[in-house]
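dude i think i finally got it to work??
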Amino acid sequence: MRTRRYWLRLLALTVFALAAALVLLPVGLGALLMWGLTHPACTPSGDPALYGLAFEDVRFDTPRGSTLRGFFLSGDNGATVIVVPAYANDRGGDLPDAALLNRAGFNVLTFDSPVCAGAAVHSLGVAEADDAIAAYDYLRTRADVDPERVSIHGFSSAGSTSLFAAARLPALRAVSAKGGYHNLAEQLGLGRESGLLHRLITVGAEVGYRLTTGLDVRVLSPLAVIDQIQPRPILLIYGSREVSLPGARQMLEPAQAAGGHVELWVVEGASHGDYLAVAGPDYAQRLVAFHRAALLE
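look at this
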């Protein structure tokens, strides 16, 4: 016959199991969401022939053991812009910007995201800076490239990658970055006063990022490195409807203290990624003028 003590133990175990589930489920959800973010599938696209542009199919090795494919578009003004792939895009992922820069006379090098070369994990921008630096090292091997006149450009996570790469590589003369994060841990809400459920999800995300990449999610902070790029110029491009715009404004503060080498252009009415569609010719003019001033004047 079951005693009162038995039922009390059963009740205690049930309460404990429910409490554990209430904790582990949101932590697991956060970890699962981060796993999904860091394990994207490659997004294929077209090649520069779609824009009527001649190109060279190139390849280069990275320090992480990958061989990345690229497109090299030959220009005629003696300067070169590296266009970094956003997130899981392949080498054709940002062809509209590559085309307008090439038509303005710049050599342009695009290349694949590491996941398109078989990498299992994407670090969301920071480790990929090594790929951008490898792209610069490849350019140094070309007789048609002046290594002292190279800049870098990227969108979203690649905007952040471009900032990380420039902070590590002084040879990059300028950076244009569109719509990137300023501090991903802050944007996820780590350390922010919030409800218990949100805190548990963010703890799961933090743990999940470390388990998948081996890194602390707090390294995903261009804000922490932007002063290392000075006095080289930086152009930040964001839409007025973009959720990450407040973070871009934060990146202006250390720049102003260091002499104002960062410019923020807010495209009125634009959201994440549609700057060219909204701004039209003004977008091309602004982007080209920035790289021309940095590399040719």
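Residues 45-183+220-296 form a domain with the Rossmann fold fold (CATH 3.40.50.1820).
im so relieved honestly
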